């Protein structure tokens, strides 16, 4: 496994732990930010594992990740995780209520916890996939 992939997975796990700490402290805004970054780091590792070049651009990473889900290289259930977590991040970081006419839910503890749980699943799946 390349050092890039290992580094991205380690970063994803650290960002996820940060999200959990922020959430435990009641800081849903920062937890949303960390959860998104954890998901994006895991996605970058998976893109690199599939042989893709990872440019540090949110939209490009999301597009490449979704293409891998569409091709069955990543479980399809994760296809929307970058878009969903990005919306929560926009709410937490900038107070946005809508993204491309999609309403962003309020950052309740449950909403953010659900996202943290989804990101945790993604990271676990990524660790398995990169070792195959």
Query: Uncertain regions: pLDDT < 50 for 5+ in a row?
Result: none
Q: Give the proportion of residues in helices.
A: over 70%
Tell me the CATH topology.
Four Helix Bundle (Hemerythrin (Met), subunit A)
First and last CA, distance: 10 Å
Report the order of strands and helices.
Answer: HHHHEEH
In total, the number of domains comes to: 1
Largest sheet: 2 strands, antiparallel
Q: Please identify the structural class as seen in this structure.
A: mainly alpha
The counted number of beta strands is 2
Characterization of this structure:
The chain has 132 residues and is mainly alpha-helical. It has one domain (3-131): Four Helix Bundle (Hemerythrin (Met), subunit A) (Up-down Bundle). The protein has helices at residues 3-24, 28-49, 58-70, 81-94, 109-131, and strands at 98-99, 102-103. It has a two-stranded antiparallel sheet. A hairpin with a 2-residue loop joins strand 1 (98-99) and strand 2 (102-103). The longest helix is centred in the C-terminal third of the chain and has 23 residues, at 109-131. The model has no long low-confidence stretch (mean pLDDT 94).
């Amino acid at each position: 496994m390349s050092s890039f992939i290992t580094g991205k997975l380690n970063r994803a796990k650290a960002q996820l732990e940060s999200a959990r700490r922020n959430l435990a402290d009641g800081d849903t805004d920062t937890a949303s930010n960390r959860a998104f970054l954890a998901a994006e780091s895991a996605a970058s590792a998976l893109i690199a594992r599939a042989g893709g070049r990872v440019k540090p651009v949110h939209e490009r990473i999301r597009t490449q990740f979704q293409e891998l889900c569409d091709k069955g290289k990543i479980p399809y259930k994760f296809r929307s995780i970058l878009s969903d977590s990005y919306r929560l991040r926009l709410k937490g970081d900038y107070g946005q209520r809508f993204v491309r006419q999609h309403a962003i839910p309020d950052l309740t503890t449950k909403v953010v916890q659900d996202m943290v749980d989804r990101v945790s699943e993604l990271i676990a799946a990524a660790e398995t996939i990169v070792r195959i």
